[in-house]
């Protein structure tokens, strides 16, 4: 059974710092992995989608990597800003299923 | 850009009421999902639909039903609302081919059952 873990559950960093958020999954048979941002009381906003054949994706200050063999993905945020404060979730789509398995998220606070 | 809209941002209902939550997407996506999100439990799949009039139970379908009469609209129905259904409800849609199964979410509906 696929399980997705995000550690740490919460993180506080000073503005300007580069940071890495982690996502681990137990089964490497995945179709894709997606990173989301969620602001309090709001829906999820898609940040990056990595297909199983890809190693990384970039969008602006964000870079997501995927290592299927080790069951890990990282989301790198460069030069963090207070506006980056939110909860970040990753979700895995296992191969051969319509379901997506979500981690419980990392709550990020960037201090001005 | 894909847009997924939900009928209400906040909803307060009484125990035993029938509740309808509606979700509409404007990008001709085939797949639509209903999740609920609770602190400490993350997102849990309630129901999934892969085509008009087609549905599959997710992980927690008890107490819920769904309707998909048109491709763009997916409704979640609470037949008799109970206090343990107080939660944030999130709708999502994907296109399995053109969209590479990227999920797009609506803004969520915060439902409180009194």
Give me the secondary-structure category of chain B.
mainly beta
Radius of gyration of chain A: 13 Å
The end-to-end distance of chain A, rounded to whole angstroms, is: 41 Å
**So how many helices of chain B?**
0
First and last CA, distance of chain B:
37 Å
Tell me the quaternary state. heterodimer
Average per-residue pLDDT of chain A, rounded, comes to: 95
Q: Residue ranges of chain B: pLDDT <50 for 5 or more in a row?
A: none
The backbone outline of chain B, from C-alpha atoms, is: globular
The helicity of chain A comes to under 10%
Largest contact between chains = A-B, 22 and 25 residues
Run of helices and strands of chain A: EEEEEEEEEEE
Q: Indicate the low-confidence ranges of chain A by residue numbers.
A: none
Walk me through what this model shows:
The complex is a heterodimer of chains A (112) and B (114). Helices cover 0% and strands 57% of the residues of chain A. Chain A contains no helices and eleven strands. Chain B starts with a strand and ends with a strand. The relative contact order of chain B is 0.33. At the A-B interface, strand 4, strand 5 and strand 9 of A face strand 5, strand 9 and strand 10 of B.
Keywords:
heterodimer, A: mainly beta, six-stranded mixed sheet, five-stranded antiparallel sheet, 11 strands, 57% strand, globular, B: mainly beta, four-stranded antiparallel sheet, 56% strand
Short account of what is shown:
By secondary structure, chain A is mainly beta. Chain A has strands spanning about 5, 10-15, 20-25, 30-40, 45-50, 55-60, 60-65, 70-75, 85-95, 100, 105-110.
Write the layout of secondary structure elements.
The complex is a heterodimer of chains A (112) and B (114).
Chain A: E1 4-5, E2 10-14, E3 19-25, E4 30-38, E5 44-51, E6 56-59, E7 62-67, E8 72-77, E9 86-94, E10 101-102, E11 106-111
Chain B: E1 4-6, E2 10-13, E3 19-25, E4 31-38, E5 42-51, E6 54-57, E7 64-70, E8 73-78, E9 87-94, E10 104-105, E11 109-113
């Amino acid at each position: 059974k696929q399980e997705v873990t995000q550690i740490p559950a919460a993180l506080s960093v000073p503005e300007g710092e580069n940071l890495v958020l982690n996502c681990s999954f137990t089964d490497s048979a995945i179709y894709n992995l997606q990173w989301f941002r969620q602001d309090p009381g709001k829906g999820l906003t898609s940040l990056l989608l990595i297909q199983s054949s890809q190693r990384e994706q970039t969008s602006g200050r964000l870079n997501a990597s995927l290592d299927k063999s080790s069951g890990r993905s990282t989301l790198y945020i460069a030069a963090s800003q207070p506006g980056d404060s939110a909860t970040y979730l990753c979700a895995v789509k296992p191969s051969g299923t319509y379901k997506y398995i979500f981690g419980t998220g990392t709550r990020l606070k960037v201090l001005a | 850009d894909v847009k997924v809209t939900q009928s209400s941002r906040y909803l307060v209902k009484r125990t035993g009421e029938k509740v309808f939550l509606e979700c509409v997407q404007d990008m001709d996506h085939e797949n639509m999902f209903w999740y609920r999100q609770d602190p400490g439990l993350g997102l849990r799949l309630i129901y999934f639909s892969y085509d008009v009039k087609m549905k599959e139970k997710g992980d927690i379908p008890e107490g819920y039903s769904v309707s998909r009469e048109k491709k763009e609209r997916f409704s979640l129905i609470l037949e008799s609302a109970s206090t343990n259904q107080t939660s944030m409800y999130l709708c999502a849609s994907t296109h399995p081919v053109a969209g590479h199964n990227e999920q797009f979410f609506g803004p969520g509906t915060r439902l409180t059952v009194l």
